[in-house]
Amino acid sequence: MHGSEGKDALHSTPEEDPRPKLMPKVMGSLAIVGLMVGLMIGRLTTPDPVELQQVETMQDGVRVWFSREPKLHGEHIDGTVALLFGAQGKSAGGQLKVNDKDVNWRVRKTDAGLLLNLVAARPLRGEWKGEEADGRWRLEVHLQEE
């Protein structure tokens, strides 16, 4: 019986290949390059966030300007009007008159976006309508007493 020692290269065990194994390195490099290209394409195709540009007071409400149309959720809560915008911007506040009575408004940042609260000493009802104007998005909130 013969052993596996290399006598005259007449044995069943093949010689070890001296060349380096490049296939795993090539596949790993391709995977990393593909991931990076995909991340760059995703970053380029992601739209800019909606930005609150300004808040103006009107005779019976407020006018809010955005860079483009935001996601909007509005409610009447215990006599106040609350609007939640899917947008970014700065906090602000002010006062306006509805039927010669004061109404306080405040924009503040939340986890879900920006929250606009309209509060008065008496219950309020609000109607809002948005439309595109001057290449921006305008939302008008008209208030009335309940």
Automatic annotation (TrEMBL):
Residues 1-20 have a biased composition (Basic and acidic residues). It comes from Pseudomonas extremaustralis. This is Copper resistance protein CopC. Residues 1-22 are annotated as: Disordered. The lineage of its organism: Bacteria, Pseudomonadati, Pseudomonadota, Gammaproteobacteria, Pseudomonadales.
